[in-house]
Amino acid sequence: MRIALALVLFIIGTFLASFGRVEGLFLIIGALYWLFTYVRYGPIKVAFVAYRRGQLDKAKELIAGVRWPRLLAGRLRPYYHWVRGGIAAHDGDLETARDEYTTALALRPRVESDRSVLSALLAELAVMRGDRPAAREHLAAARGLDHREDLDPFLEDLERRAAE
């Protein structure tokens, strides 16, 4: 929808500019800016919120709409991979989930508690795969980072499962 609207603005702006109307230039600039923000920011924030709320179908649809993930703003790319990892984990593709979470963590989300959550999610995947040493390593990383207190019960459960 955003691309279609930007295209309409661009066409109207070009038409007006061809008649020497300055307003047309503003419409052209606005359309180009809209396209720029579409490519740089995409629907990542909305997809991440949907993912956190458990609306995985909506998150999957939004993430699928990102055409050029390498062009996303650097601060949003970890969250793109985080959502893709969550969707893959939900679909049972643990290897893809691990790769996406690892990529998200390597891109260093700006908030340290987010890095802790990603480490915990990697630990959970390791437990599911039966790789207890990797699970303990990820748990230690999650514990070593600042995190919200509501993550502690999840970490304790993972520690118990990794020890079994």
CATH homologous superfamily descriptor of the largest domain: Tetratricopeptide repeat domain
Report, as a whole number of angstroms, the end-to-end distance. 51 Å
Radius of gyration: 21 Å
Let me know the number of strands. Answer: 0
How would you describe this structure to a colleague?
The chain is mainly α. It has two domains: 41 residues; 121 residues, Tetratricopeptide repeat domain (Serine Threonine Protein Phosphatase 5, Tetratricopeptide repeat, Alpha Horseshoe). The protein has nine helices and no strands. α4 crosses α5. The model has no long low-confidence stretch (mean pLDDT 92).
Sum this structure up briefly:
This protein is mainly α and 164 residues long.
Secondary structure layout plus pairing:
Elements: H1 2-18, H2 22-41, H3 44-52, H4 56-64, H5 77-90, H6 94-106, H7 112-129, H8 132-144, H9 152-163
Helix pairs in contact: 1-2, 3-4, 3-5, 4-5, 5-6, 6-7, 7-8, 7-9, 8-9
Brief descriptors of the model:
164 residues, mainly alpha, Serine Threonine Protein Phosphatase 5, Tetratricopeptide repeat, 2 domains
